[in-house]
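Weekly modeling sync, notes
Attendees: S.R. (lead), two postdocs, one rotation student

Agenda item 3: backlog of single-chain predictions. S.R. asked that every request posted to the team notebook include the full sequence so nobody has to chase files. The rotation student volunteered to paste the first one in as an example of the format we agreed on. Action items at the bottom.

Example entry:
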Amino acid sequence: MSLRVRLFAAVVLSLVLTGCGGPDAVAPKADSAASQQSTANLTVKVEPAKLGPLTTTYGASGTVAAWQLATVSAEISGYSIRQVLVAEGDVVKKGQVLAQLGTEQLQAQIDEQIATNQGRQASLDAAQFSYDRGVELSSKGNLSKEDMETRQSTLATAKSSLAEGQAALKALQAQLAQGTIVAPVDGRIVAAAPVLGTVVQIGTELFKIVQDDRLEVQAKVPEQLLGRISAQQKVEVVDAAGRTISGTVRALAQQVDTTTRLGTVYVSLPNDSGVRVGMSAELEFDVPLGDVLSVPEAALAWRDNQAGVFAVDAAGKASFVKVATGAHQNGRVVISAGLTAGQNVAVDGVGFLNDGTQVRVAAASKTAAG
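Predicted structure, as returned to the notebook:
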């Protein structure tokens, strides 16, 4: 090889060695070290997982219903509606007249029966007089036995006839009273069906009355919650118009649907709630969970679609721990599996942490952690 060629090869080799083996060649190692130093210097706050009482909020949908709904129906047949004296929405008192049936024919029958009974009473008076006279004559031997028995039979027949007439009169008077439709309870009319001129039959529904104008919301809740909700407990109710109403638990179902595993909760509403029967409503119950393990919601992190927290040990090592979560309330979340009480977890900066990251624990949180 000529001297000229050897010199050219030496120059090329020198340039290659300068580009690959100079000071810049160790820069990646320096950057990696700096990154590790930065991660190690990450300061986080920690808090221990706490075991204690917690109350959660459970939402349920319900329907407004009457506390007691009285149905007013016709009790006689064949009479037309002559008057309707109330309308839907009216407040009524027990015994107040709501409607009147046309009972003129019935009144005529009553008048006729009264006249008949008066005649039967006269017959009874005559039979009684004849019987009394017969007893007197019989005692003196001036009346035959057959004549006395006839007088006694006539008296018995007269008594029976009058009694029958009086019973018929009472039945007619009862029907006449049933022609006047009255409110069986105090309350508010929520349905009024009578149409003037309609001929009613026994059982024809005429009115519906919410007794005492008391309404409630009936909502279905899971069987697990029935034992955690109590009578007289306050409930927040939001009606269909978005208004918030304070309700009170009146009662809880004593039977659970075996198919749905749901039971009914009855929530009383104040009389001035402004809601209507059949409206929808949303309810929020405060449900005590008892003593449960919880951590701040800020401690939760997600890795590979799995919820977890970063537990920080005494050496400052953060380890990702998978957990099973429950209810959320007041900035805390229930941990049903994965942690133990007193175990420290990072409550800030969790988005920058990885399993095994070295961290520095903030002084304030060290005190809080014990």
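Discussion: group reviewed the output briefly. The helical segments are 3-21, 27-40, 104-139, 145-178, 223-226, 363-369.
Action items: rotation student to repeat for the remaining queue; S.R. to check formatting next week.
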